[in-house]
Amino acid sequence: MKVMINESQKGLLFQNGVLLKILGAGKYYAFGGKTIEVLPVGNEIAPLGCPLSRLLECTGARGLTTEVTVKNGEICLHYVDGCFEGALTAGRHAFWSEQGEHEFKVYSTDEPKITDVATTVLGGLGAAYVTEINVPAQCKAVVGYNGKTSEYLNEGRFFYWNGAVKVTARIYDMRVQTIMINGQEILTKDKVGVRVNFTANWRITDYKKIAEEYNEFDTILYTAAQLALRDYLGGKTMDELLSDRENIGAEILEELKKRTEGMYVEILSAGIKDVILPGEIAAIMNSVLAAEKRAQANVITRREEVASTRSLLNTAKLMDENATLRRLKELEYIEKIFGNVGEVTVDARSSILSQLARIVGGNDEK
């Protein structure tokens, strides 16, 4: 059997299953119980016909291979000619020296935080080897080792080895945040069930204390706001709730500040966005509002009618006291009448002048 080994390969010559030697590039014949296993030079040495230890003990292997042993609790970064090739876990590893100049950097995973490895290298390792923690701008992070707080981080990108130490992180946003309570059902003091949409703005004042004393802090804060809203509005009637929403918002803000005192947050503002009434109550309120508006419209109509009547009365008094004004008014109406006259019929029994004089209210001709 003929076997060709090129310059990017190595061969392992076996005689009846026993490794005899390592072969370089060339043409070989295998017969009489001999076999040849071909391995690529560019990969980690992983023979199928024998253990790695047997290959490394073979004659000539020492000059052809470079090896490293990684212990439990360690991780090794492998570089070839200064370029990162990959990560090696616990075990014995070997590479062909012809591949290039090998460099191995071994790290203990008992010290999880990574400080001296390039981010480009760590980013290529993936979640199997490292835990990545990204802290956004204006945020803080609390890092724990096996559940115990270990360090506090500002914004940035951080990496930790995966190993016996379990690394966890909690991110805290230091900017102003909003609590939204939508559709909260509340029974008012006069036993009317309403739904309320509530909002409050807040921010963290001491994230380290929150990390020490609270777990799932957002849920606790939401519950505090919900209870403050229930307790306060439960003591208000529906009319008070609808008529004084601005003051109610300020009062709820004070109530919420009292409930969150000692929680290391600052409540900046709070208010009721919407009050949603039950269908029957909403219909009644609409009927009452419509009745009020009709009453207001009737009052305005009556007021205008009285003003108009008073104006007519004043005009009548002036005309009764002044004959000239009365005559001018008569002529004004006659002018309006003449403006709509289509034809004039002349009575033959009297002169035209006398007839016109009678129309305008003058005297007969003299």
Strand proportion, as a percent range, falls in 25-35%
Helical content stands at 25-40%
As residue ranges, the low-confidence spans are none
Rg, nearest Å: 50 Å
Task: Name the shape in a single word.
Answer: elongated
Helical segment count: 10
Task: Please list the strands of the largest sheet in the order they lie side by side.
Answer: 3-2-5
| Class derived from helix and strand content | alpha+beta
- Which oligomerization state do the chains in this entry correspond to? single chain
Strand and helix order = EEEEEHHEEEEEHEEEEEEEHHHHEHHH
The counted number of beta strands is 18
User: Major sheet: size, sense and barrel closure?
Assistant: 3 strands, antiparallel
* Global mean pLDDT: 85
Termini, distance in Å? 159 Å
Account of the 3D structure:
- The chain is α+β, with helices and mostly antiparallel strands and 366 residues long.
- Helix content is 36%, strand content 35%.
- It has ten helices and 18 strands.
- It has helices at residues 52-57, 61-64, 119-125, 207-213, 217-233, 238-243, 245-259, 279-321, 323-338, 352-360; strands at residues 2-5, 9-15, 18-23, 26-29, 34-40, 65-70, 74-80, 83-88, 91-96, 102-108, 130-135, 139-145, 148-153, 156-161, 167-173, 177-187, 193-204, 265-276.
- It has a three-stranded antiparallel beta sheet, with no helix packed on it. The protein has a three-stranded antiparallel beta sheet with strand order 8-7-10, with no helix packed on it.
- Helix 5 crosses helix 7 (245-259) and helix 8 packs across helix 9.
- The longest helix is centred in the C-terminal third of the chain and has 43 residues, at 279-321.
- The chain is elongated.
- The termini are far apart.
- The model has no long low-confidence stretch (mean pLDDT 85).
